[in-house]
Amino acid sequence: MRSVAMIMGMPITIELPGATTDAPIEAAFGYFRSVDARFSPYKHDSELAAINRGDLPEWAWSAEMREVLARAETTRWETHGHFNVRRPDGALDPSGLVKGWAIRNAAQLIAASGYADYLVDAGGDMQCAGRSAAGSPWRIGIRNPFDARQSIKTLEPGDAGVATSGTSIRGQHIYDPHQSADLGELVSITVIARDIYDADRFATAAFAMGRDGIGFIETTDGLEGYAVDRHGFATMTSGFKDFVAKC
């Protein structure tokens, strides 16, 4: 069973091989809608928008908001300040962490329903487990940042998360809080981790580091990465090749 819904401004695809009911998929979509309602920086009535307007005091913030902002602060420390949800204008925008966090939580909802084989894909970032409907390992393509019609690598990540940060879809939307990295040097960086939450947040941070990002991924336990620069030159971490499909 495969379903697609437009939520959080992007297509979210859930594949559940062998499912006889769409109930777990609809529950996951419902969860994504609740995340969008709370964390969207574009919805006037979201909790995040109310916080940024100064309409909601900290004592009234939801447990989910507190959790995400606490995780964001941990990530800021882990990435030496390159991941920062405080934008240059002072507003909070945890989008670089929320998507992976939401994908992971939705995948856990599906797993808790008794499914071992699934793929949850939100805007090209995904968590997969088990096998596809064909009985083969899930295969994930890395989109060519210069031509969206092509894939430049095909991955078999196993039970893992895969996230890509770059400029090909949303343009230059990631910034270096230290203003030290040449963000024009990189056009995309893909990160594989056991958990999409880690893949997503560290892909965002690594992209903000510019050319130094792939080195950060190399030296961080549990991560592998593949970076493409503006000249089309690719650099991969030492263990990335283990996830590339052999044929």
The number of distinct helices, counting runs of at least 4 residues, comes to 6
Most strands sheet: 8 strands, antiparallel
Under CATH, the topology is which? T-fold
* Mass-distribution shape: globular
How much β-strand is present in the residues?
A: 15-25%
State the helical fraction. 25-40%
How many domain modules? 1
CATH homologous superfamily grouping: ApbE-like domains
State the CATH class.
Alpha Beta
Distance between the termini: 26 Å
CATH architecture tag: Roll
- Mean pLDDT value: 92
Low-confidence blocks of residues: 168-175
Q: Which structural class do you get from the secondary structure elements?
A: alpha+beta
- How many DSSP-defined strands? 10
Helix and strand succession? EEHHHHEEEEEEHHEE
Description of the molecule:
The protein has an eight-stranded antiparallel sheet with strand order 1-2-3-4-7-8-9-10. A two-stranded antiparallel ribbon has the order 5-6. It contains six helices and ten strands; from the N terminus they run E-E-H-H-H-H-E-E-E-E-E-E-H-H-E-E. By secondary structure, the chain is α+β, with helices and mostly antiparallel strands. It has a single domain (2-243), classed as ApbE-like domains (T-fold), CATH 3.10.520. The relative contact order is 0.12. The longest helix has 18 residues, at 95-112.
